[in-house]
Amino acid sequence: MKKWMVLVPAGLILIILAFSITVYSVARGPLKDSIDQAEARAGDGLQLSSIEESYQYNSTKTYTVFVGTNENQEKTIVFVPEDNEEEIVTRQMNEGISEDEAIAMLNEEDAPSKILSSKLGLESEGPVWEIIYQDEEETLNYYYVLFDSGEWWRTIRNL
Asked: Coil, strand, or helix at residue 137?
């Protein structure tokens, strides 16, 4: 009888764990497919010998962003648009401001209590650092800095 009291809960935990992993894999499938399609579309245009990070950036348009190193071991960013008619945009990381510099700008202008994420994206103005943070009231805020010039572009507050 004691064996059943241990085996049944252990079996239920295993079933719940397997179900959770399956749901997570199925949910992430379209995103992975989208990144794979962007990588295939870019092909040699990626100009990266290794990819360190890849993600989707969604704004008025959707881009798949690849961060990696090129053949010269320079850190490079490649923005692949979802729309096949648009051109792929490439920048060297040393051509613009760093993530730390963008966060320092935010800290000078506002008082973030918690930075949730920071990533590169492409807007109509060009490449930007998008910093998502919470302020002291725990509201969600977006802060954008132009990658090329290091100038503030816009802030979206209190979401």
From this structure: coil
